[in-house]
Amino acid sequence: xxxxxxxxxxxxxxxxxxxxxxxxxxxxxxxxxxxxxxxxxxxxxxxxxxxxxxxxxxxxxxxxxxxxxxxxxxxxxxxxxxxxxxxxxxxxxxxxxxxxxxxxxxxxxxxxxxxxxxxxxxxxxxxxxxxxxxxxxxxxxxxxxxxxxxxxxxxxxxxxxxxxxxxxxxxxxxxxxxxxxxxxxxxxxxxxxxxxxxxxxxxxxxxxxxxxxxxxxxxxxxxxxxxxxxxxxxxxxxxxxxxxxxxxxxxxxxxxxxxxxxxxxxxxxxxxxxxxxxxxxxxxxxxxxxxxxxxxxxxxxxxxxxxxxxxxxxxxxxxxxxxxxxxxxxxxxxxxxxxxxxxxxxxxxxxxxxxxxxxxxxxxxxxxxxxxxxxxxxxxxxxxxxxxxxxxxxxxxxxxxxxxxxxxxxxxxxxxxxxxxxxxxxxxxxxxxxxxxxxxxxxxxxxxxxxxxxxxxxxxxxxxxxxxxxxxxxxxxxxxxxxxxxxxxxxxxxxxxxxxx
Length: 501
Known about the structure:
This protein has about 500 residues and is of the alpha+beta class. Helices cover about 25% and strands about 20% of the residues. The protein has helices at about 60-65, 120-130, 165-170, 230-240, 255-260, 290-300, 300-310, 335-345, 365-375, 385-395, 430-440, 445-460; strands at about 40-45, 75-80, 85, 90-95, 100-105, 145-150, 155-160, 195-200, 205-210, 225-230, 245, 265-280, 350-360, 380-385, 400-405, 465-475, 480, 495-500. The strands form four sheets. A ten-stranded mixed beta sheet has the order 8-9-10-1-11-16-12-15-13-14, with helices on both faces. It has a four-stranded antiparallel beta sheet with strand order 4-5-7-6, covered by helices on one side. Helix 6 runs antiparallel to helix 8 and helix 11 runs antiparallel to helix 12 (about 445-460). The protein is globular. The model is unreliable at about 1-30 (pLDDT under 50).
């Protein structure tokens, strides 16, 4: 669920939080014709809450999911279907040589504390992000040599072309904060978005209230409550009891139950979620590519998708929604006999390994992995841990053999070009291709370079990608405006509305 680690503890599986594409129920979908109540409170079930709210330093997409777009904004934003659109800037221009980006700052914007947004706030925010290595996305602005304001014009000058700059500015790297703020960002916020944070009941919920001085169209609901409930059965019971209006991270296998009385319907959306089996190849038997290949060929990905109720098989680090995708199923097809031969050749017939996994993911994936690997002679011990422990042990200290997490973020191939990332993968050719993709001034060329790099990563058996997930939601029949695409990564609730009845 890490940002730029892009890990999705915000959409934990439990018993399989995906919905089968094309799934349709007998119950009616949410009503779109009733008149929304502008004074309504909408209660949205999420799975894992942030450790704290400092979006500059806190790992995990749980922070991005609720704070970006709703509370914090950048000069530009991205829609759920990955289009880049103006936000705090009314427009922008890019020079022909791709070295100068000029943004026109919107006038009349107010922070939640009542202070005006100024060009100096923009310059300060972006400069601080670039120059503070401890900020999570600081490196994304490393190629920016100058950030300056001339009236309402904000200019970014680059050292070399960067095909990812606009995309990066739609995320944490581009968020605009108020210079001189004295708030404790771990527990409080001060943004320019359509909602302001009013309460955080740690371990329970986070409450947003409509910001009446918002520069754009007002939020459709007066209040949105994000309730954190990790168990899908508990979430289902709460929904049927009228406690929740929307369930995200839901289980497709509970479709009939949630739709039984017509108050909810299941909705799905595409996503960039990647169920990733990380393999620590720094030492021991996993340093042998034959062993890593054997693990991949032992895993029946179709059975995983079937057990979860949805999704698609995935054989490489780039999902279909992202540039550079290629079907890499031929690289490591399901073949237990070939896996056993590889293990024999590596002298690893009686291998024992440990899978470290956040406990909130449930048992579906671990059970399938244990069974599949047992079939080829590998004993897999499952070590479920709390997510903060996972962050420390796996992500920070790289103390693991195998680990499973759902990586949610789009355009996150850079992790495979970073030898310091917890994946422990280091290939100079991949780093070179990724650097060439960044510096390309042609979109198609940049995508082709990513495709070549992704193939190498898969052919190196750097990890395994068990499935490409879908967003699965149970949405109340009196609810409209709920996003369905990539909701594990971003959940813009500005248009979320609730009607009477």
